[in-house]
Amino acid sequence: MFQSFTVTNFGSFANLNWQKYSNFNVIIGENDTGKTYLLKILYTFAKSVEEYSKRQLSDKPTFSQVLAHKLYWVFQPENGLGDLVKKGNQQLEIKVKYCHQDYSFSLDNNATKTINQILGTPLLANEINSIFIPPKEVLTGFDAISAIYEQLKIFGFDDTYQDLIKALRLPVCQEEINPELLKIAQELETIYQGKIVYKKQQFIFQQNNENYGMFQTAEGIKKMSIISILIRNQMIKEKTILFFDEPEVNLHPFALQSMLKCLFKLSQIGVNIYLATHSYTVLKQLEILAKKYQQDLNLCSLIKTDKITAYFSNLLEGMPDNPILEASLKLYEEDVKLELEA
User: Fold this and answer.
1) Torsion of CA 130, 102, 23, 163, to 10 degrees
2) Are the C-beta atoms of residues 33 and 308 closer than 8 Å to each other?
3) For the whole prediction, is pTM greater than 0.85?
4) 3.40.50.720, 3.40.50.300, 3.20.20.70, 3.40.190.10: which CATH number matches 2-128+239-341?
């Protein structure tokens, strides 16, 4: 899927060159290091290729138009696409190798809603689809979030939310689901001992022969259920790219570990995963899984000094020094010091 991704003067990044990927990729960094920005630009490009490839209209827009539209509604820049250019610079440039095809495009700092230069056009009938799961849950405010874009056409919840809502609206697939994928959906449903279904244009949590509305359903259950819903309607399948921003939000550590095991299983059967996190629990669980199954797991660590620099490593080879680990060790050291002083 992604073979390389290079950005120059994009957002807070002066330069970032990501050349090595695995089926499971993790982005970490302190606040304001650009984790979500990086996750979103990867998603924006992959989703633009998907949307362009699926259009069958004879007068369909160019790939440049599709990508520009997606950039605008994912990042929602106040003054236009030029806001995506790193402050103090005239132009950003992004080069991508995706599905073994080369692309590049650039934006001037005065761009509004168009891309001034792009190279590369996706092939038609691309089988890859992309899903972005944001930190905030969407099931409770499903209709309200949708209306902001579909009816009001104003900024608010960006296109990652709108795309997810469209995917969640799809009915359960009547075709046979890959048994391995179905088993993962069932494992998730076992964790929260129930199932969320979409009936009569609303989501309902079914547990012990009782139905509960989304306002009565725990945040963590709603978060995990999104994955099982998308497996059952085949929006998560082999050749899906799943982008997951802060999966730890609203989840108890035990539930989080169980969900990570399910995500890891997805990566083993052909789902490509990109995940951003602040959590030591997430990192440690993924390190354990990588070592247990001897599977490469790429880690992109964003470090901010006078600029933001990306360092790449493989959790299969152990966890490198990073701010999340340092914070955990500092707490441990403070605890030991208090015990010694007592």
Assistant:
1) -10
2) yes
3) yes
4) 3.40.50.300
